[in-house]
Amino acid sequence: MSELGNDATALSRLSRAQLHEMLRRMIRIRLFDEEASRVREESIPGFLHNSIGQEGEIVGACMALRDDDYMTGNHRSHGHPIGKGAELAPLMAELFGKKTGVCGGKGGSMHLAVFRIGSLGESGIVGGSMPAAVGAALSARLRKTDQICLSFFGDGAANCGPFHESLNLAAVWKLPVIFLCENNGYAGCSPLAQTTAIADIAARSGSYGIPGLIVDGQDALAVYEAVSTAATRARQGNGPTFVEAKTYRYCDHQEDYVFAPYRPREEVNAWRARDPIVLFSNRLHESGYLDHGELDEIETQVRTEVAAALTFAKESPWPDSADLLAQLFV
């Protein structure tokens, strides 16, 4: 197991356009989730888990993939397809339960799938999408492609059965899958120290014979470097890698749900002071890859996209009753 710091090599390997796209996708996740949270009570049925604060590790990881690579997410997963390049309007429509949503309104917030970009979907079951990621990697192996699959999961999932089964089988068969643990310190409202005996979940990777990397999840470039290393290893036939991104969600586990206070205010403030979008934009500015006018232009463009997505969702039709049995095997 190794710990990766702030790696500057990504700046030299990525073009100005790619760096701007990373920033654009991070801002898309932030503004999309802020708008979804704002309209949740009036327009979005069911639970809503946002990724505000975790944009750096999501986009850094997704930008290290190819367009034809696969990805699976978890219940906190609006950000994952956005990070992989999905359009906002069909995602927002899916949250609303509309016919024009990415799953025809049948999936909702915790079950988004966009096959066009390799996003195979998420699961409201903790750890539930990890075996699907292993299956996607096995499919790539059997079809003799060099595609890989990136599996996002949280620290809580590391204590569930699918975690063990997925890592074990991927290691035995040397499958091209990257296991990325979004360690935001809390499983629901339970702090990591109350549920897990070790501070670094990546330490478990060694027991499966899988290399483990620990990276600052608030640093998009550091995550990009870690996942790029893992992707190269997977494409060369050397099997899976475990990446633990230390990150933090700024909001509660889910929107509009009353929890007793469980996080120290000082802790929240300390993580907010390391906002991944601010850190990344400052880094680009200091390195000469971004000026203030370009930042304002990107944010304006994204605000326009989010507003258009909201209008699209509101004006889209509801599914028809005839759609209920469509796309079923039986």
- Fourth-level CATH superfamily: Thiamin diphosphate (ThDP)-binding fold, Pyr/PP domains
Q: Could you name the ranges where pLDDT drops below 50 across 5 or more consecutive residues? A: none
Q: What is the spatial order of strands in the main beta sheet? A: 1-7-8-4-3-2
How much helical structure, as a percent, in the residues?
Answer: 40-55%
Shape: globular
Q: Which class in CATH terms?
A: Alpha Beta
Q: What is the end-to-end distance?
A: 46 Å
Our estimate of the beta-strand percent is 5-15%
Concise summary:
This protein has 330 residues and is α/β, with parallel strands linked by helices. Helix content is 44%, strand content 10%. The chain has a six-stranded parallel sheet with strand order 1-7-8-4-3-2, with helices on both faces. It has a two-stranded antiparallel ribbon with strand order 5-6.
